[in-house]
Design goal:
Elements (H helix, E strand, L loop, with lengths): L5 H19 L31 H16 L4 H14 L13 H13 L21 H5 L4 H13 L5 H18 L4 H4 L20 H13 L4 H9 L5 H16 L6 H6 L3 H15 L2
Helix pairs in contact: 1-10, 1-11, 1-13, 2-3, 2-13, 3-4, 6-7, 7-11, 9-10, 9-11, 10-11
The chain binds magnesium ion.
Length: about 290
């Protein structure tokens, strides 16, 4: 594993998120076992996307990453303004408009528009996976400092998702990605995890709850030998397929690097050059 360069891990992390999102999008909201197993990019789904197009997971990650680069650091005001620009104007969307905003994110953005409170997440919201799915730019930008990685992972959640479990799962995933970027083994990455990897595939889920999402995505990473094998396990869990696979893809992409991504999936990925370019900017910014 040590032959994988750090740059390759950065590009792998962000491209991995987008590949998982695009692979899962056509079967989003379908129950496990109710659709033929997904093994390649497809068109269609609830948003009638073209093959390789991605959804809110990637759009919001691109908003967050662009903000970190442009502002040279954590600026929650700019982050939420970019999320609003996506919501209202289709900024960073594959189709030019926002077609799939999650309930918790939407409630937070509407709250912000009314009250201008930049930490617009409500602790009373259900603890869903909407801040976890866009997280990758934080551990990339703050790679030089694990304490800042943890701090800003949590704060990045609070912009839209304030429940304790949303914040905690973001901190946990950021630490796992940090360790993968360092080239650590799977055993080392999960040295202090609460996730029970003795569960069976039937016992984990692709549901939208933050804790269940992190568990399901990490299970697929831990129990597979390649990005390709793991991303298919994640999508085929059903339900919130694109997000489970996007969460998987952030960590697995950092772990296996860009060259470890299935090239036939990467080829079909919409706007992959723009995503890779942002990963390179995050790499260059992180060294400052
Ligand atoms: Mg989505």
């Amino acid at each position: 594993m040590s032959s994988i360069s750090l740059i390759e891990r950065y590009t792998g992390c962000l491209l991995g998120l987008a590949i998982g999102d695009a692979l899962g999008a056509p079967v989003e909201f379908k129950e496990r076992g109710s659709f033929p197993p997904v093994f390649e990019m497809q068109a269609g789904g609830p948003f009638n996307l073209q093959k390789g197009q991605w959804t809110d997971d990637t759009s919001l990650a691109l908003c967050l990453g662009t903000s970190l680069v442009e502002k040279k650091g954590f600026d929650p005001h700019d982050q939420i303004e970019k999320y609003i620009k996506w919501f209202r104007e289709g900024y960073m969307s594959c189709t030019g408009h926002c077609f799939d905003i999650g309930n918790t994110t939407k409630a937070a953005l509407l709250r912000y528009e009314e009250h201008k409170d930049i930490y617009a997440g409500s602790r009373d919201d259900p603890a869903t996976n909407g801040s976890l799915m866009r997280l990758a730019p934080i551990p990339l930008f703050y790679f030089h400092n694990i304490e800042e990685t943890k701090l800003y992972a949590g704060l990045s959640s609070k912009v839209t998702h304030a429940p304790k479990n949303c914040i905690q799962t973001c901190v946990d995933l950021a630490v796992y990605i940090h360790r993968a970027l360092q080239g650590q083994s799977k055993e080392e990455i999960f040295i202090d995890t609460n996730i029970d990897f003795r569960k069976s595939y039937e016992e984990v889920s692709g549901k939208g709850d933050a804790l269940l999402c992190l568990e399901g995505a990490m299970w697929c990473f831990y129990h597979s030998k390649t990005f390709e094998e793991g991303v298919k396990l994640a999508v085929n869990l059903g339900d919130d397929t694109d997000t489970t696979a996007a969460v998987f893809g952030q960590l697995a992409g950092a772990y296996y690097g860009k060259s470890g991504l299935p090239q036939y999936m990467l080829q079909d990925l919409y706007d992959k050059d723009m995503i890779e370019e942002l990963a390179l900017k995050l790499f260059n910014s992180s060294a400052l």
